[in-house]
Amino acid sequence: MSERLTIRRPDDWHLHLRDGAVLRAVLPDTAAHFGRAIVMPNLVPPVVTAADATAYRERIVAALPEGARFEPLMTLYLTEETDPADVARAHAQGIATAVKLYPAGATTNSASGVRNMDKVRPVLETMSEIGMPLCVHGEVTNPDVDIFDREAVFIDKVLRPLRRHVPDLRIVMEHVTTAEAVDYVRDTPRKLAATITTHHLIINRNAILAGGIRPHYYCLPVAKRERHRVALVEAAVSGDPRFFLGTDSAPHLDPAKLQPCGCAGIYSAPVTMACLAEVFDVAGRLDELESFASLNGPRFYRLPPNDDTITLVKGDARPLPGPVETDEGPITVFDPGFPLHWHVEA
Ligand SMILES: NC(=O)N[C@@H](CC(=O)O)C(=O)O
Ligand SMILES: [Zn+2]
Ligand SMILES: [Zn+2]
């Protein structure tokens, strides 16, 4: 007898869809399982203004498969030139759900990001007044700080001061990777939440470096020690509403990852729900998968949960999907390193 689990349709609160041929190739994988997604704005050039977000949203909707009910929730890329009035208008008109802070140089396509937090204070104050969330890539970029410490240092050097200056700003720490970040969110009673990715629940830094270098496990923030992965799993399965799914599914063409300086990002959209079911099953907490993937996110974003459901089925292991083929080349799908016994029923 196969085991079945029906949950509200999940949402992805941190997703990269890219544009053009890659957008067309990857969007069906997300639209197949997820009702909505927070779409990250780190295109080249970035999605900065309300007009940019409107145009990008139209390109996404045009790339949706026939009959898909997927809703993209747009974000604006915060720059030192961002106009608070444009942000407020985008929020009021339902064009943008959140604003994304990239410290300049922190990650893929972050060159237009913020160098001096004081310069963006007026935008953040406006967002605080209107209740618009700020999504944060939480890593410092100072080359003197070890890459494995950049998230923990960001909390002390940037996030704590920011929360003192703009205490009512609603913040999502994106793709948290450390016990320090989990503790910080847990110890903060209000206005702070965190997304956790699929892959950070599954891999630690050995996956990238032990026994050979594996570029398909390289992402930012980089995976940390096993004790941090364990802390992330505990947070995800705890049911604490401040933690929810943001896959950070971040497709890059294979040649861009498999080179002397490969780029950061893991493409997990096709296998995320199967992987999460396994993680929650192994933890003995399948009962909390729905909170993590389908309920806690909408609650933070003040949206209703999706009104339909998906069903996960446990059976014989299925082969990992092969690379997604795009007109520009293949994109390798995240390999969790364990058999996929769960799948989403078609
Ligand atoms: N996570 C990643 O490693 N890469 C993301 C950017 C990001 O989310 O930081 C990307 O856009 O490729
Ligand atoms: Zn990021
Ligand atoms: Zn991301």
Automatic annotation (TrEMBL):
Q: Which residues form the Amidohydrolase-related domain?
A: 12-304
Q: Which residues bind substrate?
A: 16-18, 42, 137, 220, 252, 264
Required co-factor(s) are: Zn(2+)
The record ties this protein, via InterPro entries, to:
Amidohydro-rel (IPR006680), DHOdimr (IPR004721), Dihydroorotase_CS (IPR002195), Metal_Hydrolase (IPR032466)
Residues the record lists as N6-carboxylysine modifications: 100
Residues binding Zn(2+) 1, per UniProt: 14, 16, 100, 248
Identify the metabolic or biological route this protein is part of. Pyrimidine metabolism; UMP biosynthesis via de novo pathway; (S)-dihydroorotate from bicarbonate: step 3/3
**Could you say which EC number(s) this protein's record lists?**
3.5.2.3
User: Single GO molecular-function term?
Assistant: zinc ion binding
Give the catalysed reaction(s), semicolon-separated.
Answer: (S)-dihydroorotate + H2O = N-carbamoyl-L-aspartate + H(+)
Active-site feature positions = 248
Q: Which Gene Ontology terms describe the biological processes this protein takes part in?
A: 'de novo' pyrimidine nucleobase biosynthetic process; 'de novo' UMP biosynthetic process
**Coiled-coil region:** none
- Identify the SUPFAM superfamilies for this entry: Metallo-dependent hydrolases (SSF51556)
- Cofactor: binding details: Binds 2 Zn(2+) ions per subunit.
Q: Which keywords does this chain's UniProt record carry? A: Hydrolase, Metal-binding, Pyrimidine biosynthesis, Zinc
Record-linked HAMAP family? PyrC_classII
Under what name is this protein listed? Answer: Dihydroorotase
Tell me the organism.
Oceanicola granulosus (strain ATCC BAA-861 / DSM 15982 / KCTC 12143 / HTCC2516)
Name of the gene: pyrC
